[in-house]
């Protein structure tokens, strides 16, 4: 008995454990040394005089009372009743609150509340054990501040990367655009000029690829990349990939065989990022193939809920040693001295993107025979797919518009870009070009001439894209004119936002002549084609 009394005395006199006990009405009956040190009040000033609720921040107590009132559907008063309500119902309660000390200091605390009962189970008081929560609160605030700082840094980094992408792509647009015009101009360039133009184009597309992939990798590594996961028709995505890689395959005399979709597969993926992965795999299969070789694309269900998409080439194949190094950044597996340009980043990006889409990427290769790259993704239900058993991608040509005169209004403030598009349209006997250097004048031009198409640089600051589209839609004269966005901003989120605003197509700078012409053809048909062609978010990958 003496030992028990000594233990009780030691506990009540401990400075490390603030203990407060009240009667059933909430008036303090015990206020130990720990409570005195924590709150700064001597026991003589509080015992039989005040309630623990008098130490609490009234605003917090009011919020707690309101929350308990909603939870238990009864009126609970702020103050002591709010502190002990759960304990009075037999529920051990631990919560955070702010105590007001004797000197006016606000002290974060954690309080454990227990109801004290007699032998007849009647409540005779309450026991409150308090803990100073200042250190934990300070650490939590520091962590929150660090998290907020990191988020702001990531946002600034993302904005910087987007701005850098735009600034680098803009001058490349002029270089690659006019080089393509020289390449296909009349009269044809001389043999010496062809070699020079080839070098300009080769270096330009390589630099663009490097810019795209380095920026993509930086965004992924920073953790700021977000994906829009949705049901995606493989048929539609492969149709778009076909339009982008077809010319590259023809130049190398490589035949690309696409699957006939007996089953209309749909996968859960980010549409633009999936297309980026497939274009990269197809482009590599063409680039590192033998002249006159084959690339075969196949799709098959491999287990319930999964599909495998494979790209098989007839190239030189890879040894086991090179396969082990395949997904290392900037490792081109000895191709650095070869004739093919490359960054050594594309496959690293492919793997990261596929994994972010809950997929798996794998490779099999035999030296002298070829390689097979495969990705596996989740299948989903998608009732509105357009694929049928007779769909063969290799038989789908570009659509051609009727040989009649169409008008294109191009709104652009860059003299170089205006000159480039003017020279491109000069090659089309079925188009005439109207130009405006700002959006306000472009709207007036649209009302006066009602063009068949509008091509808009969407990064001009005077009028927002949303306002521009709304202004056209509100006027019966201009309502329904298809508007194509053109921008040096090429991230998937930029493209997605523009299409959501109401643009029919989105073209990225630098302009690829074949894609540009195909988009004009499809836009004139006003989306009568099954799948319109849109520029790849990563730009040309070939």
Detailed description of the structure:
With 542 residues, this protein is of the alpha/beta class. It has a domain at 2-132: 2-Layer Sandwich (Beta-Lactamase). The chain has helices at residues 2-12, 33-39, 43-46, 58-72, 80-88, 134-183, 191-222, 234-251, 271-287, 320-324, 346-356, 415-425, 439-449, 465-474, 492-501, 513-524, and strands spanning 19-23, 28-31, 93-100, 106-117, 123-132, 230-233, 255-257, 266-269, 294-303, 306-313, 360-366, 370-378, 406-411, 431-436, 453-457, 483-487, 505-508. A five-stranded antiparallel sheet has the order 2-1-5-4-3, sandwiched between helices. α6 (134-183) packs antiparallel against α7 (191-222), α6 (134-183) packs across α12 and α7 runs parallel beside α11. It is elongated, with a radius of gyration of 35 Å. 34% of the residues are buried.
What is the secondary structure topology, with strand pairs?
Layout: H1 2-12, E1 19-23, E2 28-31, H2 33-39, H3 43-46, H4 58-72, H5 80-88, E3 93-100, E4 106-117, E5 123-132, H6 134-183, H7 191-222, E6 230-233, H8 234-251, E7 255-257, E8 266-269, H9 271-287, E9 294-303, E10 306-313, H10 320-324, H11 346-356, E11 360-366, E12 370-378, E13 406-411, H12 415-425, E14 431-436, H13 439-449, E15 453-457, H14 465-474, E16 483-487, H15 492-501, E17 505-508, H16 513-524
Parallel strand pairs: 7-9, 13-14, 13-15, 15-16, 16-17
Antiparallel strand pairs: 1-2, 1-5, 3-4, 4-5, 6-8, 9-10, 10-12, 11-12
Helix pairs in contact: 4-5, 6-7, 6-12, 7-11, 8-9, 9-11
